[in-house]
Design a protein that fits this description.
The protein is of the alpha+beta class and 82 residues long. It has a domain at 1-8 and 37-82. It is 30% helix and 33% strand. It is built from two helices and five strands, in the order βββββαα. The chain has helices at 55-67, 69-80, and strands spanning 7-11, 14-17, 27-32, 35-40, 46-51.
Length: 82
Amino acid sequence: MYICMPTIFIIFGFVFKFFSDDHEPIHVHVIKDDHEAKYNVDPVVSQVFNHGFKKHELSIIEGIIEENVTVIIDRWHEFFKK
C-alpha cells in the first residue's frame, strides 16, 4: 500500500507532514534525518512520541507548531476534506 506524506512546511530542516491515511485527533509528524516525532495539535499541542530528537530540538519543534497551529489545522481540513 502506498502512503502519501503531504508536506505542510519545512522549517530549519524539520519537515512537518501528514500521512494520507492519518486519523484524528489532528496531529503532525515531524521528520529530520532519521528522527521522528508526532504531536497532537488540537485541542492542545502535546507530544505523542519522540524517536531520536534531543530536548533542545523538541523545544524548537514545539515552538514552530505553536506558532503555526492554525496553518496545520487548516491544511489538515483541506487535505482530508473535513
